[in-house]
Design a protein that fits this description.
Strand content: over 45%
Radius of gyration: 27 Å
Structural class: mainly beta
Distance between the termini: 63 Å
CATH topology: Porin
Helix content: 10-25%
Shape: elongated
CATH architecture: Beta Barrel
Number of domains: 1
Order of helices and strands: HEEHHEEHEEEEEHEEEHEEEEEEEEE
Number of helices: 6
Largest sheet: 21 strands, antiparallel
Length: 473
């Protein structure tokens, strides 16, 4: 029973989060508009290099690390495993988020020379997973229930959700005046696959039995909802058909949904500005390839005997096969194809920013004039809605224009994973070609196995720069 659980812990470590604190408000990357459609725009247009314009992975865990289990510290593995189980609560979590931009672009338009309106569009693929630590399940798997009579093991500790989707989007950005810029984005979601089990109730209690050593009482009200999964474990399914199905679902052939993003930027004065955005205010209706599993009711079972094999010569394999058959007959597992709706994980970003240190430039008459600001500092708040409770992060940053065509942003983030997550992002331009790379949690690079979160973002775009008719702040 311990081996599968250990594998779950190991795989769960490879978790990801959706916060992109380095990219948010990074004006040199066009992808910053994906985090705030009302952000400032400093180009006439761009197009992303297909499949390379934005690649995002971010690993994290709120408590356990690989190092906690496998460190060479002369401690017994079982002791470290037990400590890990009891140090974690049912509110600790593992999340996975990965994004790949398939194509993207944008262009400015308007009647004025400045072109005060901006359209963005694109298609990206996203995988999002969250699982809370099933503490009671872990204790039951580790200790068994023989020495835990009259203890209630809660089924609600199982809370997991996974989404694999593609998203087509079109955004609009409008510069109203020198102070206010706003924007919004419409999205069409195409669900490739979904698994959800987040509202489980009841549990298991073990008591002294009458016809056997133990009596097991199950009071269950749980379900697992799936869409887009059943066809892929069909024995008659061919690999070529599966690939064709995936391709179709990416291009709007899956379960469809709608969503919106909103954002704005307000320039308080020449040096201070604030901004905020709501991302993924939307839903997906799951109607295709739906297969749900539900179990509800109270069940009693006294068939499990911890002393096996017995004197009759029964083997362990036949013993567990008999138990498996008994459980299949005991539980009334209902399989349905009822359609259902899931909400997208709503995200909030907000920041306050201060710019300073104007660059001195010379005009054609060799007169010194003030140009754009070279430095920026600020703070950002990030919130994401999750099944049990919102997750939050707070970031302080320093932004610097190093020289023409090269900028950098350093961040320090406090979140569920770390109190000192240091990150760095760099963006460089070679002509119109823009290349950016961002990573965080540098303090753990010496021992990556002890890191609670590691993030990487990179991309390549071609940017059409603005015509500089006048200096801009």
């Amino acid at each position: 029973m311990k081996v599968p659980f250990i594998l779950v812990l190991f795989v769960s470590y490879l978790g990801f989060s959706q916060n992109k604190q380095i990219l948010y408000g990074f004006p040199d990357s066009p992808q910053a508009l994906m985090l705030n459609p009302g952000g400032k725009v400093n180009n006439r247009g761009y197009f992303g290099i297909p499949l390379l314009s934005h690649i995002h992975v971010n690993a994290g865990t709120s408590e356990l690390t690989v190092y906690d289990l496998f460190a060479n510290d002369n401690r017994a593995f079982n002791g470290k495993l037990r400590q890990a189980i009891y140090n974690m609560s049912q509110n600790d979590f593992f999340t996975v988020n990965q994004q790949l931009e398939i194509f993207s672009g944008g262009f400015a338009y308007g009647s004025s020379y400045e072109k005060d309106k901006y359209i963005t569009f694109g298609l990206y693929q996203e995988f999002d997973f969250i699982s809370y630590f099933p503490r009671d399940y872990a204790i039951l798997a580790y200790e068994g229930n023989f020495n835990n009579t009259n203890r209630f093991f809660s089924a609600s500790h199982l809370s997991v959700r996974a989404d694999l989707i593609s998203v087509f989007h079109v955004g609009y950005n409008k510069k109203v005046n020198d102070k206010l810029t706003y924007g919004f984005r419409g999205k069409i979601y195409s669900s490739i696959a979904n698994i959800s089990s987040i509202k489980n109730k009841g549990g298991l209690i073990t008591q002294t039995g009458e016809d056997n050593l133990l009596r097991h009482i199950f009071e269950l009200d749980g379900s697992v909802r799936t869409s887009g999964i059943a066809n892929f474990y069909d024995d008659d399914s061919e690999s070529d058909d599966d690939i064709a199905t995936l391709r179709k679902r990416i291009l709007f052939g899956g379960d469809l949904g709608l969503g919106m993003d909103f954002g704005f930027t307000y320039q308080i004065n020449e040096q201070w500005h604030v901004d905020a955005s709501l991302i993924d205010f939307g839903f997906i209706s799951h109607t295709k390839d739906v297969e749900n599993y539900e179990v509800r009711g109270t069940y009693e079972y006294e068939g499990i005997d911890p002393l096996f094999p017995d004197a009759s010569g029964r083997t362990a394999d036949s013993y567990w096969t008999e138990i498996e058959d008994d459980f299949e007959e005991l539980f009334d597992l209902e399989t349905t194809t009822t359609k259902y709706t899931t909400l997208r994980p709503l995200k909030l970003n907000a920041s306050i920013n201060y710019s300073f240190g104007k660059k001195q430039i010379k005009d054609c008459n060799c007169v010194n004039e003030e140009g754009e600001y070279l430095n920026g500092i600020g703070g950002q708040l990030y919130l994401i809605k999750r099944p049990k409770a919102p997750q939050a992060a707070l970031t302080a940053y320093y932004y610097r224009r190093l020289f023409e065509g090269l900028t950098a942003k350093a961040t320090c983030t406090v979140d569920s994973y770390s109190l000192s997550n240091l990150g760095l992002g760099i963006s460089g331009n070679i002509g119109g070609l823009n290349i950016y790379a961002m990573a965080d949690n540098f303090l753990n690079f010496k021992n990556i196995y002890d890191a609670q979160s590691v993030s990487l973002q990179l991309g390549i775009n071609y940017i059409f720069k603005k015509n500089k008719a006048k200096n801009e702040n």
